[in-house]
Design goal:
- The complex is a heterodimer.
- Chain A has no helices and 11 strands.
- Chain A has strands at residues 4-7, 10-13, 18-25, 31-37, 44-50, 53-57, 64-70, 73-79, 87-94, 103-104, 108-112.
- By secondary structure, chain B is mainly beta.
- Chain B has no helices and 11 strands.
- Chain B has strands at 4-7, 10-14, 19-25, 32-38, 44-51, 56-59, 62-67, 72-77, 86-94, 97-100, 104-109.
- In chain B, strand 9 (86-94) and strand 10 (97-100) form a beta hairpin.
- Chain B starts with a strand and ends with a strand.
- Classes of the chains: A mainly beta, B mainly beta.
- The interface between A and B is medium-sized, with 23 and 22 residues.
Chain lengths: 113, 110
């Protein structure tokens, strides 16, 4: 248990659906991240939030919409996804958004049909 | 642009062997180098973090070294056990981003 909890663990959705991924951290960290992990590719950073303010948007398509209502919660809203968006989506947190040790959740395995 | 490479991509060894996993990076201006472990279908667990000013870090049977001038880091696992079976990823922190390698998938058999 790393102190970072992601729900749901698995999600299957159609291309016209709208769904949300949730991440919660109980570590008192100020930075939270969304990463995408596709088969045989390195982890890709999607978004970084520091003190609830987005500080990084790594050229992610607008069909992915992050939300950080407070420093403990992070959401990733999904709409009109494509099959190639199927991947493991990982949330992480760190004390600050400056190269410190990352603590990851267990991820949401997303399948887009 | 930083690129991180890990060799080998997969490794299968008998229990008890000492192992070396390799990580290379193209831009030596890193802030730190981190090693993670990932079990199938799970998130990443941080193993070791080496600051750019350090040469190595140790935790139990794990030892990670860093040679910035040559753009290399190694993860040494002593007396491997079946429970060490997982994918090991290294990541280099540059400026404001952690860049990951594709990992080494390790299988330790009894």
């Amino acid at each position: 248990e790393t102190g970072v909890t992601q729900t749901p663990r698995h999600l299957v959705m159609g291309m016209t659906n709208k769904k949300s991924l949730k991440c919660e951290q109980h570590l008192g960290h100020n930075a939270m991240y969304w990463y995408k992990q596709s088969a045989k590719k390195p982890l890709e950073l999607m978004f970084v939030y520091s003190l609830e303010e987005r500080v990084e948007n790594n050229s992610v398509p607008s069909r992915f919409s992050p939300e950080c209502p407070n420093s403990s919660h992070l959401f990733l809203h999904l709409h009109t996804l494509q099959p190639e968006d199927s991947a493991l989506y990982l949330c992480a947190s760190s004390p600050r958004a400056q190269g410190e040790k990352l603590f990851f959740g267990s991820g949401t395995q997303l399948s887009v049909l | 642009k930083q690129e991180v490479t890990q060799i080998p991509a997969a490794l299968s060894v008998p229990e008890g062997e000492n192992l070396v996993l390799n990580c290379s990076f193209t831009d030596s201006a890193i802030y730190n180098l981190q090693w993670f472990r990932q079990d199938p279908g799970k998130g990443l667990t941080s193993l070791l973090l080496i600051q750019s000013s350090q040469r190595e870090q140790t935790s139990g049977r794990l030892n990670a070294s860093l040679d910035k001038s040559s753009g290399r880091s190694t993860l040494y696992i002593a007396a491997s056990q079946p429970g060490d079976s997982a994918t090991y990823l290294c990541a280099a922190y540059n400026t404001d981003k952690l860049i990951f390698g594709t990992g080494t998938r390790l299988q330790v058999f009894p």
